[in-house]
Amino acid sequence: MSAPPTLFQRNFDADQFDRIKVSIQKEIEGAKSVENLMRQLKHIPNVQCVEFADDDDLDNADFVPGYLSEEDDSCDFLVILCYVELDRSKMETDSQYVEVCFYIVYNDVKQTGWIDAASLASADNPEDYAESICFFDLETHTPILPQEEGGAHNQD
Asked: CA spacing 20 to 30 A to 152: which of 18, 72, 125, 143?
């Protein structure tokens, strides 16, 4: 007898996540500026919100210290949060709303960036805040942080 699916497993579709990740990576690679990147991300299907991360969203210890630039007017890197609603039709979830938040690191001077992390969140009501379930590995989809109290993104 197998164990029942975890909260993460009930709220996650790896194929759907990978398709969205590829779309975001293509936009990062083609971006000419941070404004251009943010505008292009908003055109990806099911993107709910694209915004700059504030200090409360970040743990700067996770970023590569060698990725600093000497150019004037450079902020070295920016972190962009891209919230994408997932289609729940292939999930066993009871939630009415499920989202992945992609943490994108981008250097506007060097016009380069990458997806640094992703987290999964859900809400019983689409009008409520999505509560964080966990962060997970971008390649293996393995949860890397347990569900925490509080959390996440308000639906606009």
From this structure: 18
| Cβ-proximal residues to 138 (8 Å cutoff; 6+ apart), any chain | 21, 115, 117, 118
Position of tokens 């709303």?
97
Q: What is the pLDDT of residues 69-98, one digit of tens each?
A: 555 555 567 889 999 999 998 888 889 999
Q: Could you give the CA distance from residue 50 to residue 81 in angstroms, rounded to a whole number?
A: 6
**Contact present, 139 and 110 (Cβ < 8 Å):** no
DSSP, collapsed to helix, strand or coil, labels residue 122 as strand
The alpha carbons of the chain give a radius of gyration, in whole angstroms, of 16
> CA separation (Å) from 29 to 22, 34, 106, 155?
11, 11, 10, 28
pTM for the full predicted model: 0.81
